[in-house]
Amino acid sequence: MRTKINTYIVSLTMIAFSLFNGCQSPDELLPSVSRNGINSIVAAFENGAGEFVGLSTEGSNEIVIPIPYFFPESSNNEVTQAMLSKMRVRANLDDNVIVEPSLFFMDLTKSNTITVTDQRKEKKQYTVRAEVRKSNACLIEEFSLPELGLTGVINQQERTISIVSLDNLPPTRANVRLSHHATISPNPVTTEIDYNNEVTFVVTAHDGVTTNTYRVNKSIPNKIDMGIREGSFKIMFEKRLANDLGITTINMTGGIAVTKDYVVLNTRGEGSVYINARTGVKVGTIDLGAITGGLTNFYNTADRDGNILINNLAPNAGTFKIWKLTSVTGTPELFIDWDTSGSTAIGRKVSINGSIDGNAIITAGLHSATNQFARWTVVNGVLTSHTPEIVTISGYSWSNNNVDIVCTSDTDVTADYFVIGYSDNRLARVRGTTNTVVAALNQNDPNYIGNAVDYVEFNKGKYVTYNHVNSFTWGAADQVWVINADGNFSGSASSVALWTSPANRYGANAIMAPVNGNGTGDVAFRVSDDGYFLYFYFMFTNGYVVGVQFDCIDM
User: Fold this and answer.
1) What's the rounded Cα separation, in Å, for the pair 337 and 320?
2) What tens digit of pLDDT does each residue of 11-44 get?
3) Which helix (H) or strand (E) holds 493?
4) Angle subtended at Cα 320 by Cα 316 and Cα 325, rounded to the nearest 5 degrees
5) pLDDT digits 0-9 by tens, 199-242
6) What are the φ/ψ torsions at residue 376 (nearest 5 degrees)?
7) E strands of 94-174, at which residues?
8) Which of 415, 448, 438 is nearest to 489 (CA)?
């Protein structure tokens, strides 16, 4: 069989470690004794790229260095004989062991003889050569049915893919990501296939020999007992607002509304752009008609049933209004019209728990106050009043118009709620019965702005998310966190988060886009209709919109 030639010394090291840490102490430390002399040989291309470890055949003095057929392996760049003719080669040797001739560059298009002299002056010869090998990797790494909005759940150990759906599925094409240079038969990318019954795919590696067989089934799998399955996180898409979606207005994309099929990006003064909620591909633009305006279609969000809520900025645009859209092709209908008498500033963020077709609680922070928000209720599809209840929070305050509040219930106004606002910059849980802060995470850097929060219940678990926005060029920020709302709600966000986005990866500063002068962004959860998937979306103004998937499938 083939093994790495440093296996033996690893075993000796483990034995020595066990002896050193055992209950008996050695009387003296003896000098090491060379057994192999040479422990490993590693080759790289002339420019230093790559790291290819030599393999030895048991009982043989031949060392074969496998080189991939393509380099990088994800490319179509074939490795040539010229590239092999001058390879950098280095060896790991025991103490006081020498190798001749000295290693530096080696022509690996042919066999090379080296002599290793160990500590006892005993010599051993090896032949070293390269062998270009086609990859034997043959996995299905991703599988989805984009036209149906379904993503396959892959169990690599069982070689199965589950399509979670209760519906009768029409024949459709798939999106598939395979191991580099592998092929699949039949090809679901070019062939419409019926997935209502089991489908078998054979994936063949680039070497033409190694294969894996996958079985795809439409199924209803078991769920784990509670919450998100560990390790189920997956980035569905990451799209730059300008380059990928054509949104070039600066500082005007402030909110996202998530429906079953789309993510709607509000762009003030223009029709809202909507993208596929699974792929991030731009689908179209909503015609907002008469409510199109820089201060009119100022922000948007969506309820549990996919109704899109669009609001203006008051008092700049007059009385505070919220319009509803039942679909991306619908016409805006006035839903809330609150006469603030010109004294109350509101509208930079609005949150909703529930559905305006049933029960809902709608909240929006006041910018003319530092610790108050407006709250509307919807009962059995009817708005109880255009005039909201004004709620005052004890132990929390904000400034510079940046605040967002979300309730944990769609019916109970005394339920707890979450708040994030600048310059307090703490995600806080507020007791709904007393409107007093009862728990909070550590304050984020006061140079950065927290101004978006959302809450969701998924598979009997409760989760909250919020953002951290860099409005200038002060360094790393532009981050979001997904947090267990019933967990240890103290300490830093990163220390308690189930998932954290990379700092300074998706904001405007990270991609050298125009500075996010408004310091805005947004976050939103949505649970799939079947309850198996939790979708999470976030956006940083002038930066990216990102879609993330979690699941609760028992695998």
Assistant:
1) 6
2) 333 333 333 344 343 333 233 344 457 888 999 9
3) helix 493-496
4) 115
5) 999 999 999 999 999 999 998 889 999 999 999 998 999 999 99
6) -110, 155
7) 98-100, 105-106, 112-117, 123-133, 140-145, 150-151, 153-155, 160-164
8) 438
- Beta bridge pairs of residue 9: none
Residue with structure tokens 């802060």?
Answer: 437
Q: How many helices (H) and strands (E) does the chain have?
A: 3, 43
CA distance 509 to 2: 49
Average pLDDT of the chain, as a whole number: 90
- Closest CA relative to residue 263, chosen from 542, 541, 535: 535
Q: Which domains does the chain have, with CATH numbers?
A: 2-12+36-133 (2.60.40.2340), 140-219 (2.60.40.2340), 234-255+342-551 (2.120.10)
What is the arithmetic mean of pLDDT over 520-530?
95
Alpha-carbon separation of residue 281 from 244, 271, 410, 509 (angstroms): 8, 17, 32, 23
Two tokens at 293?
A: 């305006």
Model pTM score: 0.74
Residue 63 CB contacts under 8 Å (≥ 6 apart), including other chains = 5, 41, 54, 55, 56, 126, 127, 128, 129
Residue carrying structure tokens 């600066």: 250
Contact 532, 223 (CB under 8 A): yes
Reference 465, options 433, 501, 430, 436; nearest CA is 501
Residue 146 has pLDDT above 60, yes or no: yes
Are 194 and 167 a contacting pair, CB within 8 Å? no
- Asked whether 143 and 78 are in contact (CB, 8 A), the reply is no
pLDDT of 257 above 80: yes
The alpha carbon dihedral of 73, 78, 82, 84 has a sign of positive
Tell me how far apart the alpha carbons of residues 290 and 333 are, in angstroms, rounded to a whole number.
11
SS3 percent helix, strand, coil of the chain, rounded to 5, is 5, 45, 50
Instruction: Identify the helix (H) or strand (E) that includes residue 13.
Output: helix 7-20
- pLDDT tens digit string along 305-345? 999 999 999 999 999 999 999 999 999 999 999 999 888 99
In the prediction, which pLDDT does 36 show?
Answer: 58
Query: Cα–Cα distance between 249 and 257 in angstroms, integer?
Result: 18
Distance CA 156, CA 364 (A): 45
If one compares 149 and 267, the residue with the highest pLDDT of the two is: 267
